[in-house]
Input
Amino acid sequence: MIDPFGRKISYLRVSVTDRCDFRCVYCMAEDMTFLPKAEVLSLEELDRLCSAFVRLGVRKLRLTGGEPLVRRNIMSLVRNLGRHLGTGALDELTLTTNGSQLAKYAGELRAAGVKRVNVSIDTLDAAKFTAITRWGKLEQVLDGVFAAKAAGLQVKINAVALKGVNDDEFDRMLAWCGEHGFEMTIIEVMPMGDIGPQRVDQYLPLSLVRADLAKRWTLEDTDYQTGGPARYVTVRETGRRLGFITPLTHNFCESCNRVRLTCTGTLFMCLGQEDAADLRAPLRASIDDALLDGAIGEAIARKPKGHDFIIDRRHQTPAVARHMSVTGG
Ligand code: SAM
Ligand code: SF4
Output
């Protein structure tokens, strides 16, 4: 799959549910309305869709959400998709999770062929953690993180930078990640979905975070790339990688290798654009994949060049109306 700008599409992110057991302040409103279950693809349908993408050239699959591990019977999907690792059709099957259910599933994930997980933790302060996630408990998430480590999964910690909330914590988090052998990525808050408080109050440019960290840590540039939006440095003092995802201060679209599928079978060709393709109709129209393959091909042929996120006082409405939980980041 090659898009009109010559980019090879080899990475599919799949939001397996829009539901979540947390309500992070930058991601969801407290009183979110979720999709009626009837609109959501079954796990068998998700498997068929993901497998079609693998057949068409996707080499990396990431399950996300909402919270992927709160979807009932999710491990059956993970195990089924794991078969593509066995055949060599897929290089990597991975997951982005809030960690709340990791203690329960870490061993099974590893057994299904998952080698790495991204866990979202914005703070190591328990009270702040509950304030940010509204419903989360840090202790439960840390139990999950250490269960993942004990099961042999590599862990990357994702932290969203929030002005006046966790900007004083990155030193501590970086040291903690170094101590336990975790990589870390800091993410700029993106203007997605109506969440109540004004985005402009949450937005902290990572250029400032990086400049501040560089006063105390030796951040060495690397040419390590994943084809994704993160730019990596190596922290000399810990020997671990630190990534910065900067959609607002650095445009990363030129190397984009990914598309995103929602739990209703809608394909978004760009995180920051509204254009989408419905794959549920062709999926359900026939048991043969010809219609589906055609619809995927058409969608890739209109993948846009890039996005145009802006957060400032003149742009108070979200750049993209859907919440991050629809596509899973
Ligand atoms: N529930 C899982 C989790 O929290 O890791 C997976 C889904 S969550 C939508 C994926 C990632 O998107 C998380 O790291 C989260 O912090 C991030 N995220 C959510 N809303 C965001 C926003 N508006 N801007 C930037 N990152 C956001
Ligand atoms: Fe749930 Fe993840 Fe969104 Fe937090 S960031 S509300 S954990 S989907």
